[in-house]
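Hey, quick one: can you model this chain's 3D structure?
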Amino acid sequence: MPATIKPPPAMAVPMKPALPTDVPQKGPAKNGKPPKGTLTAQFAHHKRRNMIRTFSSSVDNESRVTVKMYADGSVTLDDKGKWLDRVTYSKLTACQSRVEEKRWDTLYEGTWEQNGKQLVIKTKLVNEKCTQGVTCDSRPPEMTPCGPVTKTLILTCTADSLTLKQDKKSIPAWKCDMGKAATHTSNPWNFGRDQCVERYMGNRWPFYYRPCAAQKPN
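Sure thing. Here's the predicted structure for all 218 residues.
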């Protein structure tokens, strides 16, 4: 009777070592994973002026800056807002009602690093949408190019605090230095570390800080 040939024993497949949970994995910022931290700041300027028998005007400027920091060290920074300047003249003129309007949405991507009480965000411009123009009465708007923005945007932020106007409450914050960067939303950019804060200014200087309102610029 012929001998039975037994198959060789199966070789064990070595398992890949588990990656330490405290070592962030490299990858793009938009990989479907939620950000490790988000900083949001709103900016609002509303001004009204009425010169009797001459003209009335209003300025409304609203914007929001959102910084999303991911565990792999990548970051996205979105600056979005709108600016409206309306003037209505009392006397008959060639342009009875004049409206200047600007809307923008600027996206930066890069890296972030925190070392103790310092947070450094280094980004480059990846996408910009901006339109601006002037409308006279019911005529078609006259469009003009938007001013240039900084291509490489670096924020050097220091752990500090901000005082909210309503209750004089002091909250932890990141106060950021942008150097001479050109952005659609004016600086300074300061963020609440645990909540969204709004830098608000009315008819009179100076501006002050308050908790963010629910509405977003569109």
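One thing worth noting: The chain has one domain: 37-211.
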